[in-house]
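Support request from a user on the community tier.

User writes: "When I paste my structure tokens into the form, the page sometimes reloads and wipes my input. The last time it worked, I copied everything first. Here is what I submitted, just in case something in the input itself triggers the reload:"
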């Protein structure tokens, strides 16, 4: 269920009702959940010290719910860029942790110090494990399908149990299982933005600008952008 907050406009919430209706009608395939759990269990068996990375976005929520269903235990790690993290992710975190008991950890990094160098990944590997489960899906980037064709659900250090899930299945799964959904997916700009292109990425970055990310951030997060500039 979409978490509502003060950043939503009345029109945003009315528009999201249409998405919600579609999600409620979508027929989900049980075999996809079964396969996701099998992949996670196999990876855990091969790499007992593995972790699960979360961003508190839509894919992370589906992945975390499957972690609960699987009965597996592992550290769940959120990498948080203290100077520009999306505050709405904390709303999802709080709602999820009220309901589910997981081994949760937050690691805070400075965006400008680590993003390009990849230092945050090295620090996570050093503190927890090099082996991780992520919510990456093929249909969000062309090269991901190529990687899947080469390696399947996992490569040397990364396991991607949701690889073959489609975006409409992700949203429908969250709605039908009454899971918390980050408010960002309801920031629709009066219909100018489609939720399938919206991400929970750190603010004032570069990812997704070809979909109007910069203008979207200015509309919904101008207070944070002004603080970053200072």
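"...and here is what came back when it finally went through:"
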């Amino acid at each position: 269920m979409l978490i509502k907050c003060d950043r939503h406009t009345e029109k945003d919430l009315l528009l999201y009702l249409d998405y919600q209706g579609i999600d409620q009608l979508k027929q989900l395939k049980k075999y996809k959940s079964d396969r996701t759990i099998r992949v996670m269990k196999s990876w855990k068996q091969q790499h007992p010290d593995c972790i699960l990375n979360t961003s508190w976005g839509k894919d992370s929520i589906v992945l975390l719910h499957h972690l609960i269903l699987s009965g597996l235990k592992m550290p769940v790690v959120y990498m948080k860029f203290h100077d520009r993290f999306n505050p709405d992710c904390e709303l999802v975190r709080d709602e999820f942790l009220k309901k589910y008991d997981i081994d949760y950890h937050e690691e805070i990094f400075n965006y400008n110090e680590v993003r390009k160098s990849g230092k945050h990944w090295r620090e996570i590997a050093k503190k927890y494990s090099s082996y991780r489960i992520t919510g990456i899906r093929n249909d969000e980037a062309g090269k991901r399908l190529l990687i899947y064709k080469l390696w399947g659900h996992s490569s040397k250090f990364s396991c991607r149990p949701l690889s073959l899930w489609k975006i409409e299945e992700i949203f429908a799964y969250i709605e039908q299982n009454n899971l918390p959904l980050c408010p960002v997916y309801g920031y629709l700009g009066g219909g100018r933005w489609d939720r399938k292109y919206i991400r929970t990425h750190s603010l004032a970055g570069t990812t997704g600008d070809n979909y109007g990310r910069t203008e979207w951030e200015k509309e919904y997060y101008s207070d944070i952008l002004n603080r970053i500039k200072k």
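Agent notes: The reload is a front-end session timeout and is unrelated to the input. The mean pLDDT is 91. The first helix runs from residue 10 to 25. Escalated to web team.
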